[in-house]
Every structure is written in structure tokens, then in C-alpha cells.
Write a structure and sequence with these properties.
19% of the residues lie in helices and 0% in strands. By secondary structure, it is mostly helical.
Length: 42
């Protein structure tokens, strides 16, 4: 038997830092930020 999830569900942030991600998601694209000097994804 399962019980109802009673904890709040976080709402994604839509600030300046995450805006490019959400705009790309609306277009059906996935973008991942990376370091310009070493190309490490973050």
C-alpha cells in the first residue's frame, strides 16, 4: 500500500541564471552549461 506524498514539491527557479535552460526546454532542446576554458560540464 502506498501513502500520499505530503511534502511540498519544489518549483523550478526562473531567474537570470536558469532562463536560457528553460527557454531551450520550451523549444524542445536540452542545453547544458560548461566551462569555456576547460569544457567541463556543470
Amino acid at each position: 500500500m502506498t501513502s500520499a506524498y505530503d511534502k511540498p514539491i519544489p518549483i523550478p527557479s526562473n531567474g537570470d541564471l536558469t532562463k536560457p535552460f528553460w527557454e531551450a526546454a520550451k523549444r524542445g532542446e536540452l542545453i547544458i552549461p560548461y566551462c569555456n576554458s576547460c569544457s567541463t560540464l556543470f
